[in-house]
UniProtKB/TrEMBL annotation:
The protein's name in its UniProt record: DUF5130 family protein
Highest taxon above the source species: Bacteria
């Protein structure tokens, strides 16, 4: 997770949320908060492709300045999470983001994706 938009305490809490979500979902979960270089979807996909186990991974990319959220899932995860479900998780996150709650939005999105990705 990379971000200066979150406090140290928020980052620590998100790390715990991610670890718990990974145990529930048996998927690797990564979060990037920052400026997307170029097209956001292409940028998120390129980040996802650099992960250790992209087939078993979920990447959440948030560009707060451009107000963009991208969720990229690997092949194994995509068998359990549909595009519509990923969109629902993104919508849940953006609802909290628009209220000024970046950490809460990320937490909710991570938890939703983990529930959906359970075997």
């Amino acid at each position: 997770m990379r971000t200066n938009a979150l406090t140290a305490a928020e980052r620590a809490a998100l790390d715990v949320t991610i670890r718990n979500a990974e145990q529930v979902s048996r998927a690797e979960i990564s979060v990037f908060v920052g400026a997307a270089s170029g097209e956001p979807r292409d940028f998120a996909t390129s980040l996802h492709n650099t992960l250790v186990l992209p087939a078993r991974s979920i990447l959440i990319m948030v560009d707060p300045d451009r107000r963009v959220v991208e969720i990229v899932t690997g092949g194994h995860v995509r068998e359990r999470i549909t595009d519509d479900e990923a969109q629902q998780a993104a919508a849940a996150m953006t609802a909290r983001f628009s209220a000024g709650d970046l950490a809460g939005g990320l937490t909710r999105g991570i938890e939703l994706l983990a529930e959906l990705a359970q075997d």
